[in-house]
Amino acid sequence: MMNSNIKYDLLKTFRDGHQIADLKNYFKVTELFRKGLSQKQIRDKVNVSLDKLYRWRHTNSKPLFVKIMEEFEDRYNKIYSNKELEDIAYLIGYNLGDGNLSKNFCNTWFYGVYSDLFDIKKILLKFGVKPVIYKYKIDNGKMAVHDHIFSRFLYIYGAIPGDKTKNKVVIPKWILKSNKDIKRKFLQGLFDSELNKISKVENKNHYRNLKFDNAKTLNKVRDGIFFLNQIRCLLLEDFGIKTGRVCLGRTYKRSRDNEKMQQLYFILYSNYINLYYFIIKIGFLYNSKRKKSASKILKKIEKLAILEKEKINGYKKVLLLRKKGISAYEIAKRLKLKIHLVKQWSYYKTKPRLFNFYSNNS
């Protein structure tokens, strides 16, 4: 039996008043037939033509919604395992990034690097659909799923139909309440599609901050800020990833409809510790360029990140031991730290480079 919440969500995918009226009448008529009323008696009670009553009673004719509900129940009304929910979370994350679900729920699209889309296709095949991948603009591509039941399935799990810049976008509650594996897959879907590649600043020993962009029409800016704060405060913070506040970027006119747009963004700080945590705890899944870049950078910064973390922890211990009157040489011996570090922290009041950052953002 289908959950009543799912039925309600499915009903929201119909916007045609005649279809909704047909649905309500169908269930009334079915009940009256069950009670033994004739077609003429039912016609007097319900505003449905005799022809339609005959078809509902004696043929397989049913309102579109009933057919969709029955097919949905047959294909997708089940209890999903954690691994399956991780796959769904990835698809929802990608939809909220560089994906699209048509307003009429007939088509779903995923945009990205042509070769990467074949990896995402493997997920889609698990849900009994037939994705088609198209190549355009050298190495870019799009993957289409022409399946009105699957589109509704994604919608029920949190995908947004139509133009996301004009609609309210939120992280689905089931993802916020889920375990870290599911949250990670959602973020990987989102970041595979939207986050920029990790790159080094030219002629410097540090990396550019990662930037997550989102564009909204002017009347949906507040909704956009709310969505980005959900990503920052309810998900990334859960993984120990530090981010900056949501900022307003440039405003511009969108060429396709002359709609005035507002760019919104936040940054993920790229100090060694934060970047290390991002790569090992979340990272990228099917975006090959970003994944390759992250893998190379991880090899370079892993030891540096661990060293920075050890300095922060060591600094706290040094201060506690100095308060007990223990000498700098004895502290260095006990904690296996270099004596010059202990002296700097004890006598000259210096601190590890990232101590204030992690104290102020903890």
Characterize the structure shown:
- The protein is of the alpha+beta class and 362 residues long.
- 54% of the residues lie in helices and 13% in strands.
- The protein has helices spanning 4-11, 17-34, 39-45, 50-58, 64-76, 82-96, 114-125, 148-156, 173-176, 180-194, 221-235, 272-281, 288-323, 328-335, 339-347, 355-360, and strands at 99-101, 107-113, 132-136, 140-146, 210-217, 247-253, 260-268.
- The protein has a four-stranded antiparallel sheet with strand order 1-2-4-3. A three-stranded antiparallel sheet has the order 5-7-6, with helices on one face.
- Strand 3 and strand 4 (140-146) form a beta hairpin.
- It is elongated and about 100 Å long.
- The two termini are 47 Å apart.
- The model has no long low-confidence stretch (mean pLDDT 90).
What's the shape? elongated
Average pLDDT score: 90
What does the radius of gyration come to? Answer: 28 Å
Count the beta strands. 7
Q: With helices defined by DSSP (H or I, 4 residues minimum), what is the helix count?
A: 16
Order of helices and strands: HHHHHHEEHEEHHHEHEEHHHHH
Strand order of the largest sheet: 1-2-4-3
